[in-house]
Amino acid sequence: MRRIAGLVLLEGLLTLGISFASAAEKSTGSYASATECSKCHAGIFKYWSESAHARAATSDSFKHVMDATLKLSSDAPAARRRCMECHSPTTLVTGDRDLTSAVSREGVTCDFCHTVKEVSLDRANRFSLDPGPIKRGPYAYSRPFPGHKAEYSFLHRGSPLLCAGCHEFANEHGFPILATYSGWKEGPYPARGVSCQDCHMAFVPGAIATENLLQKEGPRVMNLHRLVGGSSMSQLNRGLRLKVESFSASATAASIRVAVSNEGAGHPVPGGLPTKSIALVVGVEGPGGNLENAQETVYRREVRDAKGATLKTLPEMLLRATAAGGDNRLKPGETRHESFRIALNERSRAVVARLEYRDATDNAAPVKRSVITEERRELKTR
């Protein structure tokens, strides 16, 4: 059964959406700051403030990508607008794309998410927006809070369309830079009734509002508004499996066969931007602990420009991508079997198979590398 779920809109991903600001529906009010929400929803606010959503418009990584994109773009104002449509979506209504107000700097903030009425991917104005006193959420029998009215919304209960508003879009050439929603839709999870929110906003103990505002029989769990995404080690460990299927070693070489499985992600892994990849690295551990003679298989989605060149940086992808390159990502439920033969020497201590998550999104920083999991096979003392 689909669990009651809250809101997922963005992964903290550095994205540019299609231009729908000019067509955003008229609002009936202005946006409130998340600090106002925190007065009654302290637990939710705490988790949200730790999320990539809260830093979507202010993180160093976003600033680096946006600055580089604006320099490359032939229409910098339009490029800035597209950035802000997902990274500070209140600007769809306020037009504050220079982030002069505190609410704009809150990125994907509470009041934007909980006043979205509808999302349609078939329209230029994907979001139907209605900032004001009515806050929409996943509970069918919500009662008004002192500061606002409450309204049940199936969109917030668990519809992936809420996420797709920013996690499914094409650049100005029509190329899908982000296709996470499509990847989910093409897999087995829709038939199982498992939505984005079920995986990325798990239930945790806590009250949705301060105790004095809840009825005694009110819920004592809430959706985790930290909105953990595909770069979270907890998510990657939950979704991916690594298993050594066979291993043999001689004095000079080792042969190893490894299985890598996507057991828990409802979309191809890695998800999100083409700057993300998963690497299966197999090598020999020497006396110092470093891997020697390493070989690797990298799972990723490549994109190319009009001349067929593979693009490496996110600003280039956002502005120049026109065609898909190779795509060997792990689909939901898929297992790959990879074989390696590794040279050994007298210093070799163990053969290690390791899964790494790599993020090259920030064009001004080194590639981020994190070990997801590893398997070892010790060698006889030499």
What overall geometry do the principal axes of the alpha carbons give? globular
Rg from Cα: 23 Å
Q: Write down the overall mean pLDDT.
A: 88
Strand content: 25-35%
Protein traits:
2 domains, 382 residues, three-stranded antiparallel sheet, globular, alpha+beta, four-stranded antiparallel sheet, 14 helices, single chain, Immunoglobulin-like
Briefly, what is this?
The chain has about 375 residues and is of the alpha+beta class. The protein folds into two domains: about 20-225; about 235-380, Immunoglobulin-like (Sandwich), CATH 2.60.40.
Q: Your description of this structure?
A:
It is a single chain. This protein has 382 residues and is α+β, with helices and mostly antiparallel strands. The protein folds into two domains: 21-223; 233-378, Immunoglobulin-like. It is 24% helix and 28% strand. The chain is built from 14 helices and 17 strands. It has helices at residues 34-38, 42-49, 60-72, 76-87, 91-94, 102-105, 110-113, 154-158, 161-167, 180-185, 189-192, 196-200, 233-239, 314-320, and strands at 116-119, 127-129, 134-137, 149-152, 168-170, 176-179, 203-205, 221-223, 240-249, 253-262, 276-285, 291-299, 301-304, 323-327, 335-343, 350-359, 368-378. The strands form seven sheets. A four-stranded antiparallel sheet has the order 12-11-16-17. A three-stranded antiparallel sheet has the order 9-10-15. α3 runs antiparallel to α4 (76-87) and α3 (60-72) crosses α14 (314-320). The termini are far apart. Mean pLDDT is 88; it is low at 1-28.
Write the layout of secondary structure elements.
Elements: H1 34-38, H2 42-49, H3 60-72, H4 76-87, H5 91-94, H6 102-105, H7 110-113, E1 116-119, E2 127-129, E3 134-137, E4 149-152, H8 154-158, H9 161-167, E5 168-170, E6 176-179, H10 180-185, H11 189-192, H12 196-200, E7 203-205, E8 221-223, H13 233-239, E9 240-249, E10 253-262, E11 276-285, E12 291-299, E13 301-304, H14 314-320, E14 323-327, E15 335-343, E16 350-359, E17 368-378
Parallel strand pairs: 3-4
Antiparallel strand pairs: 1-2, 5-6, 7-8, 9-10, 10-15, 11-12, 11-16, 13-14, 16-17
Helix pairs in contact: 3-4, 3-14
